[in-house]
Structure formats: C-alpha cells, structure tokens
Design a protein that fits this description.
six-stranded mixed β-sheet; alpha/beta; Rossmann fold; binds FE-MO-S cluster; 12% strand; 13 strands; four-stranded parallel β-sheet
Length: 542
C-alpha cells in the first residue's frame, strides 16, 4: 500500500490542529510533475513530540571536532554530556604516533554544584594546565554544555589566556546544547571556528602531491574513510586533510594547499567548503562514496576535474579491478535482497546517500528523510537564496571570509570551471528529493508516532535509522539497521564497504528470529486512550 494525501491526512488528524498544520509542511509525497516541491526543515521540534534529533553540543563536539585525534577535546560541563558523547558514534582513528591519539579518553571539567554557583572558569583553566602536562596534545578544544552558557562562564577568555600560557592552539566553542534547533547549529559553530582559528595556520604553501585533495564531511564511522582512502591512494591522490574522520590538527592547519575539496556530508561541512572556495579559490565537488555506482561516479567526476588523461585511465583501471573483486561477492546477497523495500531516515546526509546502495541490491526506498538537514539538502542549493533566516538560524552567525591576499589562487581557469559545472556537481549539491521515486514519502524530523503509523501502512522490509528508534520496528517484526554507527559493523563506504553492507542487510533478512515475532497490528486491536471526566471534582479543590 502506498501513502496518498488521504492516508497522510488521517495520520496528521491525530494531532492538534496547530501541530497538524506544522507537521504537514515537513512531509511530502514525491510527485515529479509538480517540479521542485517545497519542504519545511531546520525549524524547532514541537514540544511533546518524540524526535530523534540531538543538540548543538552533539553537532559541534560530538560530530565535527570529536574525531580530530591529536587534540584533547575538553567538555566543559557536568559529566553526563561528556560521558554520553564518548565514542558511541564509532568515529575510528589510528595514529602513526600512538601517544598522539586521545580519542579513547573522556575529558570533562565535571562541573559540580559549587562550580555552577561560583563559576567554572578557574576550574577550566586548571584543567587545561593539567591536560597539557599529562597529554601534551597538539591542540585543545573546549566545548561548552548548556549550564556553561546559563551561568556565563567566559570560555573564550579562558582559552585565550591558556593559549598564551602554553603556546598551544586552544579554541573554545560556545556550542551549548540549546544554541539551535538541532545538532546542525553545532556543525556551523565548529565550522566557523575551525576556519577562523585552525585551517590555514600551517606553513605549507604548495600542494605536496600532483593531485592533492581534502576530504570534507567524512567522519570514518566504522572505518568508512579508510576504505575511501584505500581506493583514492591506488588512483594516485594525495589526501592532505580529512574533515574530520581520523583527522588531525597537524593536517587540518595546512588544508589550504589542496587543489580540490571533496564534500561527502554536505550538511555538516558545507560552510567550510564554501569558505575555502572564497578564501583560497579551491572548488568543492559533491561526492558520495556510499554505493558502488555513486562511488564510481564520484571517482570519474574527480578525474574529470583534474582532466589529466593518465589520471582518467588509472581511475578506470582501479574501478575495473575493484568491480572484478566485489561483483561476484555481491551476487548472492542481491538474490536475498531483490524486491524488498526500505525506510531510510538518518541525520543530514545518509538518508540520501544510502538510497543508491539499497537500489543496487534491489531494495526500493519508500520513505526517506533527515533529522536536522536544511531545505538545500532536500531541494538542492538553488533554494538557498529563498530560505528565510529565522531567530534560531540567526543565532549562529555566518562567518564572512575574504580572499587570502597571498594564498588565493584560481585552481582552474574560469571558463573550464563553468564548463565543468555543467557536467559534474562542482560547488553544487542537488539535494535528495530529485533522486527519489514518485510516490515515495519524504519526511523531515520523523517522530515516534509518525514512524509507527508509516510502518503500519508501508510495511517496509527493513528500517534504517538510529539507536533511538531502532527497537520500535524490531518489535514490529521488521529488521532495523542503524545507519549512524552501523551497529558495530562497517565500513560500508566504497567498494568493499558495499559488500559488508549487503552481507549485514542479507543477514537481517535471513535470520529466523522474525518468525517468532508477530507484529502488533496482526493480532491486537490498537489501544486508544481517553481522558475521563473528573467525577469527584478533585481538581476544583486545588
Ligand atoms: Fe553528516 Fe554524519 Fe550525517 Fe551528521 Fe550525525 Fe553521523 Fe548522521 Mo549520526 S555528520 S549529517 S550529525 S553524515 S552522527 S557521521 S550518522 S546523524 S546522517
């Protein structure tokens, strides 16, 4: 059964009228005859609705800063925020110097009640001294949690003073959880500071390799970045910096020398990508290394950008070699997966990126969406001028950069750039919606209630989302695959990653466990709650 406007209305009718009006704008049924369909996104979740979203602190410290391995990331606040953002995302890292990988540590100022009352600045300053003494990191970040903003600790001045004391790059991030409507605000805060205070601080002037690139928005979840690197290195690319999976302060500060920036996750890092273009003249290319065909297309687009015959040939050779390895491995899984359907709801990129991989395995995505992405991630960057800034988005200022007097260089002639833009997604992202099939459902900030209702109607064979909603579908008898941290598996990117994904998904379908679970709608009527009249008039007594 498909979702049509009538069934959608029936779902939304359970909401109070105002909530219905709001949620209606966040849900679309794809209809290409209507042209670009507008969707509302990046607005506040309505209180009472059970969302999967995180907070600004999660987006800043957890997502963008956290994976940088040679820096100590201090969480200034009570211990919970630090503890629960401690490597659960599975952003892996290996360091050539084992003494310079601090990701396995949970470093927090552990604010107590007295710090909340009397202020936590002195404790933070002492803590930085201790961190320098014990770990000797290459740099330090300080991320603020909610109470820090509420009590007004000036973490910027603590960082400035400590930087003077230790002669070390120490940056502070006012990414209090409440700073935005979701973790997306935290991405922006981290992007601004990294650009202003770290990228470009290095001494390098020239690219160290013939084809030097940065990889932006790749966080090495389950080792994804390593698989992509393996392929890129075979072709002959030199990767200067990865932002930020398995990344480092040392690489990041020289990121300005790259000739091309790849953007995997547009949502979390498009700010840095565009600023690098303005400041250093480095174009960015939207890539997608999830799925075999998307990987091949991304590799070919990269080769086209450099336009070097030898590179184009090597790209084709590597593609052929990799395909010869994985095609026979994928075959048996394709048989298991053929004809199935999926929900693909992830944070800000993967709701789009995994659809191609599903398609290759014979699985159709019938519903997709993002927790916190913006309209451009759905509708494409062409809508950017039309997006009205609201009070929440204005809360995080755009950082304006200018061309660097010494280092700005056009990487390719203007004419060639224009020609390439017509052929490859250079400094552009077309969004998820264009690639979805007519009749499929697109939902922004999908919530618990809508998840249950839409599963009941569409009955997908697999549900892909995160830990917060993982067990609802499983209790309904539907296998669930986490696409945030991959449920302890991965990598899923690139060629070999596609095989891992196909294997894991096939195992989910093939396990006999599902024979023991009866979905609730099959043997039970739905319970509906009512509010009884207050017969004893107890309320009036209060
Ligand atoms: Fe980008 Fe990400 Fe994602 Fe994201 Fe995230 Fe993530 Fe994600 Mo979880 S940076 S937007 S804030 S691709 S942690 S690695 S999986 S919600 S879709």
């Amino acid at each position: 059964m498909a979702v049509n406007e009538k069934t959608l209305d029936a779902i939304l009718n359970e909401y109070p009228a105002k909530v219905k009006r709001s949620r209606k704008k966040h849900i679309l049924i794809k209809d290409s005859s209507l042209g670009r369909q507008e969707i509302e996104a990046n607005t506040r979740t309505i209180p009472g609705i059970m969302t999967n979203r995180g907070c600004a602190f999660a987006g800043c410290k957890g997502v963008v800063l956290g994976p940088l391995k040679d820096m100590v990331h201090i969480v200034h606040g009570p211990i919970g925020c630090a503890y629960y953002s401690w490597l659960t995302r599975r952003n892996k890292a290996k360091s050539e110097d084992p003494g310079k990988n601090f990701l396995s540590y949970c470093v927090s100022s552990d604010m107590q009640e007295s710090d909340i009352v009397f202020g936590g600045e002195k404790k933070l300053a002492r803590m930085i001294d201790e961190v320098v003494e014990i770990f000797k990191p290459n740099a330090i970040t300080i991320s603020a949690t909610c109470p820090v903003g509420l009590i007004g600790d000036d973490i910027q001045s603590v960082a400035r003073e400590a930087q003077k004391r230790h002669g070390l790059n120490i940056t502070a991030y006012n990414c209090e959880g409440y700073k935005g409507v979701s973790q997306s605000a935290g991405h922006h805060i981290a992007n601004n500071n990294l650009m202003e205070r770290i990228i470009g601080q290095g001494e390098m002037e020239d690219p160290p390799g013939k084809y030097t690139i940065n990889m932006l928005g790749e966080y090495n979840i389950g080792g994804d970045g390593w698989e992509v690197e393996r392929v890129l290195k075979q072709i002959g690319y030199h990767i200067q910096a990865v932002m930020t999976g398995n990344g480092s302060f040392e690489d990041l500060k020289n990121a300005h020398v790259a000739q091309l920036n790849l953007v995997q996750c547009h949502r979390s890092i498009n700010y840095i990508a565009t600023m690098l273009e303005t400041k250093y003249g480095t174009p960015w290319l939207k890539v997608n290394f999830i799925g075999v065909q998307s990987t091949i297309e991304s590799l070919r687009n990269m080769a086209q950008y450099f336009g070097d015959e030898e590179l184009i040939k090597r790209t084709e050779d590597v593609i052929a070699k990799e395909l010869a390895e994985i095609d026979p491995m994928l075959e048996p899984y394709k048989k298991i997966c053929a004809g199935k359907t999926a929900f693909c709801f992830v944070g800000g990129s993967r709701g789009h990126h995994y659809q191609g991989l599903y398609r290759e395995l014979g699985i159709e995505t019938v519903l997709a969406g993002y927790e916190f992405a913006h309209r451009d991630d759905y509708e494409g960057r062409e809508v950017l001028p039309k997006i009205k800034a609201d009070a929440d988005s204005k809360n995080i200022p755009d950082l304006h950069v200018n061309p660097d007097e010494k280092r700005y260089r056009l990487k390719i002639p203007v004419e060639r750039m224009e020609d390439l833009k017509g052929r490859i997604p250079l400094s552009n992202y077309k969004g998820m919606n264009t690639e979805m099939r007519d009749g499929s459902v697109i939902v922004d900030d999908l919530n618990h209630y809508e998840t249950e209702e839409l599963i009941r109607i569409l009955k997908p064979d697999i549900f892909s989302s995160g830990i917060k909603d993982k067990y609802i579908p499983q209790k309904m008898g539907i296998p669930s695959k986490q696409l945030h941290n991959y449920d302890y598996s991965g990598p899923y990117a690139g060629f070999r990653g596609a095989v891992n994904f196909a294997r894991d998904i096939s195992m989910s379908f093939a396990t006999p466990t599902w024979n023991f679970i009866v979905p609730p709608w099959k043997d039970r009527p739905l319970l509906a709650g009512t509010i009884d009249q207050c017969v004893n008039d107890l309320c009036a007594e209060e």
